[in-house]
Amino acid sequence: MTPKIMKGSNSVSDPPLTHSYRSLLLHELENTPHYSTERDHEVVGECELPLIDLTSLRSERNGRERRACVEAMAKASSEWGFFQVVNHGISHELLKEMKQEQVKLFRLPFETKVESKLLNDSYRWGTPTATSAKQFSWSEAFHVPLAKISEDSNYEEFSSLREMMEKLAVAMSELARTLAGVLAENLGYSRRSTFPENCDESTCFLRLNRYPPCPFAPGTFGLMPHTDSDFLTILYQDQVGGLQLMKDSKWVAVKPIPGALIVNIGDLFQAWSNDIYKSVEHKVVANYRVERYSIAYFLCPSYDSTIGSCKEPSLYKKFTFGEYRKQVQDDVKNIGQKVGLSRFFSIAH
C-alpha cells in the first residue's frame, strides 16, 4: 500500500513538519517503486499495561502487601518492560496545571520557540538527521536538564511554567528513585546508598512533548521506534493515545488510563540487571485529527558513571554512560538508527 499524501493546514505555532516530511516521502516514492509502510505499522491490538497500585509501597505496616507490590513491578519489568502506576504520590492538580502551562508554551509562534532560547535553548522539532520518512518524528519538544529549570533567564514571561516544572521535577525524581530502588532491591541490591548512584539534577531531565495533528495517512511516526538510554523513564500522557510497544515481536497499542503514570525500563537498567529487566522498543504514532501531549522524566547517571551488573558473569562488558551515549550518537549519525546494548555484549556472550 502506497501512503497517501494529504493536504495539511499547520498553524503559525507548528514547526514546518509537513514540508520536511513531504520531501523525504516523495523522495522515497520516486526511488522505491514498491514502497510500503504496512509491515512497519501493523498493530495487532490494544493492550492494558500491568496496573500497579503503589499505596502499599510506602507502608511499612504490611510487609506482605509491600512485597506483593514489588514483585508485581519486577514481573512487569521482566515480561513487558513497561507498567502503569496509580496512587503514585504526584497530585492530579499538579499534573493538570503542568499540562496547561505546557499547552501555552507550545502555542507560541514557531519562530519564537526557535529563536527565543526558552528553557535553556532546548527546543527541538522533527528529526534533523533523517534521510528517510521512517527516520522522521512528527513532533516537537523541549528537552530540559533538571539543573536548568530554576534559571530565571529560561522563561521570560512564563514564570508560572517554571514553578510547575520545579514541583514536577522534585516529585518525578522522588518517584523514579523509589521505583528504581525497589526494583534493585528485588534483585538483591543491599547497599544503603541510593540506587542508581550519581543521578542528580545535572544528569536527569524532563522532556515536554507535543505531537501536532498529522495531515499524512495513518502510520507516520510521532516518535520513531527506540529504546530509552537511561535507567528508568516516567511518562505522563493525555488520553489521546498513540504510544505503542513491542510485545512478543508484535506492536501493541497502549490504552491510556486516567490518572496513571507509565513507567518503562531503560537500557542501563537492562544491562545492570543482566537482562532480567527489559528495555523494550516503543514508538508514538501521530494522530490525523488531534494533537497529543506528554511529559517524560528520564533517570540518568553522570557521564563518567560505570554501568556494572547486579551479578557475575555479566552479559555486558563494563562501559560508562558517556561511552554509551557517544556510541548511540555515532550509530545514529553513521547508519541512521540506534543499535544500543548489543554493541556492549561481553566476549563470552
Automatic annotation (TrEMBL):
<dbReference type="GO" id="GO:0046872">
    <property type="term" value="F:metal ion binding"/>
</dbReference>
<dbReference type="InterPro" id="IPR027443">
    <property type="entry name" value="IPNS-like_sf"/>
</dbReference>
<dbReference type="GO" id="GO:0009685">
    <property type="term" value="P:gibberellin metabolic process"/>
</dbReference>
<dbReference type="GO" id="GO:0045543">
    <property type="term" value="F:gibberellin 2-beta-dioxygenase activity"/>
</dbReference>
<dbReference type="InterPro" id="IPR050231">
    <property type="entry name" value="Iron_ascorbate_oxido_reductase"/>
</dbReference>
<keyword id="KW-0223">Dioxygenase</keyword>
<keyword id="KW-0408">Iron</keyword>
<dbReference type="Pfam" id="PF14226">
    <property type="entry name" value="DIOX_N"/>
</dbReference>
<dbReference type="Pfam" id="PF03171">
    <property type="entry name" value="2OG-FeII_Oxy"/>
</dbReference>
<dbReference type="InterPro" id="IPR044861">
    <property type="entry name" value="IPNS-like_FE2OG_OXY"/>
</dbReference>
<dbReference type="InterPro" id="IPR005123">
    <property type="entry name" value="Oxoglu/Fe-dep_dioxygenase_dom"/>
</dbReference>
<dbReference type="InterPro" id="IPR026992">
    <property type="entry name" value="DIOX_N"/>
</dbReference>
<keyword id="KW-0479">Metal-binding</keyword>
<feature type="domain" description="Fe2OG dioxygenase">
    <location>
        <begin position="200"/>
        <end position="301"/>
    </location>
</feature>
<keyword id="KW-0560">Oxidoreductase</keyword>
<protein>
    <recommendedName>
        <fullName>gibberellin 2beta-dioxygenase</fullName>
        <ecNumber>1.14.11.13</ecNumber>
    </recommendedName>
</protein>
<comment type="similarity">
    <text>Belongs to the iron/ascorbate-dependent oxidoreductase family. GA2OX subfamily.</text>
</comment>
